Amino acid sequence: MSDGSGQIDILISRYDPERDDQPHTERFTVPYQHDSSVLDALLYIKDRIDGSLSFRWSCRMAICGSCGKMINGVPRLSCKTFLRDYAPGPLHIEALHHFPVIKDLVVEQAGFLDKLPEARPWLIREQEQALADGPHRQSPRQRARFASTSACINCLLCYAACPQYGMKPDFAGPALLALVERYNADSRDQGRAERMPLINAEDGVWSCTLVGNCSAVCPKGVDPAAAINRNKLESAKDYFLRFLKIGSGGAE
Amino acid sequence: MSRFDHKPRLESTRHDIVIVGGGGAGLSAAIAIAEQHPQLSIALVSKVVPMRSHTVAAEGGAAGVVSASDGLDLHFRDTVVGGEWLCDQAAVDYFVARCHEEMVRLEHWGCPWSRGEDGYPAVRNFGGMSTARTWFAADKTGFHILHTLFQTSLRFPRIQRFDEYFVHDLLVDDGCCRGVVAIDIASGDFHALQAGAVIMATGGAGRVYRQNTNAGILTGDGLGLALRHGVALRDMEFVQFHPTTLPGSGVLITEGCRGEGAYLTNRHGHRYLQDYGLGPEVREPVPKTMELGPRDRLSQAFWHEQQAGRTVDTPNGPAVQLELMHLGRRKIAERLPFISELAKTFVGVDPACAPIPVCPSVHYTMGGIATDITTATALPGLYACGECASVGIHGANRLGSNSLAELLVFGREAGLQAAGFAADQARQGTAAALAAQARESAARAAQWLARPAGGLRLAELREQMTTAMQDGVGIYRDAERMASTCESLENLSQLLDSISLDDRSRCFNTEWLSAIELGFTLDVARCIAHAALNRRESRGSHQRLDGYNQRDDDQFLRHSLATLAPGQPPQIHYRAVNITRLPPGERRYGGGSATEHKP
Amino acid sequence: MSNQNKPRSHEPIVWLLFAAGGMIAAMLMPALVVITGIGAPVGLIADGSLDHERVIGMLGSPAGKLLVFPLISLLFWHAMHRIFHGLHDLGIQAGLGYYRVLCYGFALLATLLTAGILFLI
Amino acid sequence: MKAHYQRPMGRWYLRPFYLFVYTLRELTAVFVLLYALILLSGLAALAAGPEAWASYRQALAHPLSIGLHGLILVAALYNSITWFMVAPKAMPALFIGTRPLPGLLITLAHIVVFVIVSVALLVLAGAG
Q1: Which ipTM was obtained for this model?
Q2: Contact status of B330 with chain D (Cβ, < 8 Å)
């Protein structure tokens, strides 16, 4: 840990689909201050050294979820990771693991985005309340039940951290299953039965072996591993108790 | 060399409505259409995946009259007075009447509003508001609103998303906006989306300044697009400086802190706002007093403190101190967890133990694409909503928490209006003309990739622009510096064609996009600077030091309208403000003297 | 788009057995290993208590059988479940269904064997 | 047109270190299996009669067997600790008011029970 400023070497994994068959590494040297982030370094390189370096970024304040990269092999938000912690370097930046690389540090996110509707990530009510009837009531305690799962910014670091997703892209994955839990745990929601098929599926909670790495890398404290594994018990209950619920409408 | 052919492809699709921008306003519009007109096809085009849009970074809350002691009239007055009478009062009336309903609608869609013990959504105080009416979800209100809207939009298969498509031109035929041309960022191919109506919801243009709270995507694309097709930008000189942001980075530290009772102190520990007509000093939050004053006044007070040498020095420039310590760790954890995280991460401060160093940064574009109360622009078929629009509710200074409410109210309005327009439109006859236009526009955009090497660096030009804006059109302005900024910007826009790119590839070429963005941003910057130079008075966020230090209702109780013709500096015109029921008066905050502090 | 046609996984059956075995392994196994694998063989356990007759008397009682059966059989399920998933972790794709039958078949066999032996005692 | 690069998974279970930690946890299953087999064969010996039981006890007393049990013990302890560490994630969420019960507390509770049960078993065996 150095607290001052200086220079740091950064190794960046580059890939240009129009020229390359596989990525190669390029070295850049950038200056840094005590508060320079990895994103600052990438912007410095793009602006002053090589404009062809491609990466996603936007808010710079760890809330939009755009700028996840592998930083020395660990998935992190580059806006929230500081060069001082890696001095004197070198620092290795790659595209998020487990996703197909489009170019340089940019990955194809369809593996998450296309599955989103399967989570039914919206409030499901048996009877929708009229606007005129005002808001639903929900106590602070009830709200606390889904406060942490609702904090997910979809940055996909958890997918890059999950070897099971890496081996099996059909796996719904940590963020999606955390989203399922977010709505299921919302006292206003009545859509659990609609979401159970995803939970119960082979590609649902049952592809998880509780590596736990998703929760370790989450920059927002979501704990997807807990969201998934709590639902293993729910799914197991659903598996055996569905026979007892015939006619109760509990199961689909 | 290349494994692929470089010929730009141009795909073409037809939709009933094209929405440009996937933030709060665009999503509100899309959902409103999908709900009310399920037969219409909607294309939601966004240069980032919708949940990355900058609505996500809004923190403090969204206004909506809720309590029995409050009333629509009070919200109306706060907004009009806060905007120093430059608000369209009919629009404000329309707006305040619909805020509450939109908050409830969001609640029904699952937005996790913070709650009181009674189970009803809680409200907090906000600057310039006479009572607590700001709905909030801890200090991540924008995040929760955006994700609620995005996730709710997934219910509607009629909303077809074009994620990471960059719109670089509008298609206009027969005097009507008929679609857009976009670059599919991942492939670099072009895509023409023809439509019966287009809604612009691309957000603000904070990136015209060097130090701002805005995301990298806020380059004013929508404003630039409208401008190039002859639509005027209104009140562009009014740029909001948020008084509490982190020095250097400009990371936003929400007004919600002050809503919860935080203090602002100078280097002597003195709560200096009482010296600027915002006193008396109160311990507990009192609406419209001290730290709950409006943003323009607070940013101006900072400037004076800095001039007087009473700010604190940080490695990234002067700052004052935002003190939350007296709120206690528990309340900070419950109400302001994100601020806590940001302060710890970016300046190494635990706000429960030490003050956060803050200073003003550019935050919000109060002007925008001029629309009427129905969000329609002067170009038939083109609608605008959210920060990129000027529907007229913010005037010379926006009150915090009115913008999140605005994008819900007018996003919905834009959706419904555009749907009505599109349903009326005959679709035949224009396809060939539009296709030709799209081809021509795509060829122009592709020219960037064919330019000779050895030209100017893009970033150099951008830095010169943001520096010129920061220097000339800041919190306090004078003719000399504004004129110099105008001149620099005109020169820079001439140099745009001398830029050459390092990246000539098509696939995810963000340098190419940045170059096109810079064209839009520069045009917006020029409009801001010229509109500012021409407004010879001081009002709201536009404060002058050069003899025009006072408000001048006789001359300038008027909207500015900026238009741009190729090869010429922006033209500034003026139009009357729609004042229906609250005549101009004195703008008064705090319980003490009404005399404003002027340099 | 729809998730309603996703086939239900039968994993809950083996997962419940794995989890129960895991709890037994985590809570009891270290102490049991010390007792049966180290303490008893080196003679730390009171003399005579491990005589054939006494052990039969203990484990052969209905209560003893009720304790021993889940203890041994669930350890098998716990181990075989992890071993099966370990094969997947090692990147083995081909024949995974075959290995599934093999792994859980082995656990089932061991369970039946345990029950059979206990029945005989 | 798009040629995306898909990085091979390689030997992820060995490197980086935090994934190797997981691999070790999964590897304890082999030792659990071994121990289960030892127990089962003991049961079989018991059923087969006093002679078989005696030779089973003799085999267990062999230094190799003691060494193996030492290894099994290490693996079992590692399995126990990792099991207790993930326990908070596998059980229903607990709250005190609006605050989630810290996972560490749940892990500690498991460890306390583990220690009590282990000591009780050892004392019982020693006394037995």
Answers
A1: 0.95
A2: no
